[in-house]
Amino acid sequence: MTDPYAHPRRALVSGASTGIGEETVRLLRARGWEVVATARRRDRLEALAAETGCEPFAADLTQDDDVAALAAFATSRPGPPLSALVNVAGGALGMDSIADADVGRWQAMYARNVLATLRLTTAVLPQLRAQGGGDVVLISSTAGHDTYPGGGGYVAAKHAERVIATTMRLELVGEPIRVIDIAPGMVRTPEFSLNRLGSAEAADAVYAGVDEPLTAGDVAEAVAWTLGLPRHVNIDSLVMRPLAQASNTVVARR
């Protein structure tokens, strides 16, 4: 049987059109991985493919047909079998208090962070099992470990996403499939806070006065490190924050 951990290896990375997903594609390609990169924006994927040599596949992970087509593509490529799934796609919308919650925003965040991860993971898992193992990585958030004012909808979604990882690990115990949860704190990316808050000014204020927030490349390094460990080592949960951030609400600012 082919060893899914032998090099070269192939990964499927979601959310690859920007931020953490994009940097994960770049880093894995630089380290010799074959990579299928997916996101909704075809033009961004094609530009990334021209730069890195990844295999682009545009898909909306909230749609069953798109996910099925993506999984079929990723698991049928010539060359090394798919051995790692890196779930990055997600995001936050708004800063509603519970009293003023926008139900539509909560539903959208649940669909993008939780159900998209669930759909893609369950679509790929049979192939990982059939070939003798592999890795499932979830990029959750420190929002999945605590809460903060105005974060209720995103926090609820990230708690649910984290539970996918913790439950899968129990259900797959004894199988050669690692389930890895990476939970970043404050990461400065081009679009996360902009999409959440709706303006560049508001997004910049999130990071104002903070010495060196995490970068997307920092999180990509964590992904590559966990995937590169000996196969008997599983990083159950990795919480990473910039030095200036002590919790979701305690941040040193100049």
Question: Your description of this structure?
Answer:
- The chain has 254 residues and is of the alpha/beta class.
- The protein is built from eight helices and nine strands.
- The strands form two sheets. The chain has a seven-stranded parallel sheet, with helices on both faces. A two-stranded parallel ribbon has the order 7-8.
- Helix 2 (42-52) links the parallel strand 2 (34-39) and strand 3 (55-58).
Name the shape in a single word: globular
Our Rg estimate from Cα atoms comes to: 18 Å
Q: Percentage of helical residues?
A: 40-55%
Biggest sheet overview: 7 strands, parallel
Distance between the termini: 56 Å
Question: How do the helices and strands follow one another from N- to C-terminus?
Answer: EHEHEHEHEHEEHHEHE
Q: What's the number of helices?
A: 8
What value does the average pLDDT take? 96
Uncertain stretches = none
Structural class, from helix and strand content?
A: alpha/beta
Features:
254 residues, alpha/beta, seven-stranded parallel sheet, two-stranded parallel ribbon
Summarize the structure.
By secondary structure, the chain is α/β, with parallel strands linked by helices. It has helices at residues 19-30, 42-52, 64-74, 103-130, 152-171, 192-197, 200-207, 216-228, and strands spanning 10-13, 34-39, 55-58, 82-87, 134-139, 177-184, 187-188, 214-215, 237-240.
Please outline the helices and strands.
Layout lengths: L9 E4 L5 H12 L3 E6 L2 H11 L2 E4 L5 H11 L7 E6 L15 H28 L3 E6 L12 H20 L5 E8 L2 E2 L3 H6 L2 H8 L6 E2 H13 L8 E4 L14
Parallel strand pairs: 1-2, 1-4, 2-3, 4-5, 5-6, 6-9, 7-8
Helix pairs in contact: 1-8, 3-4, 4-5
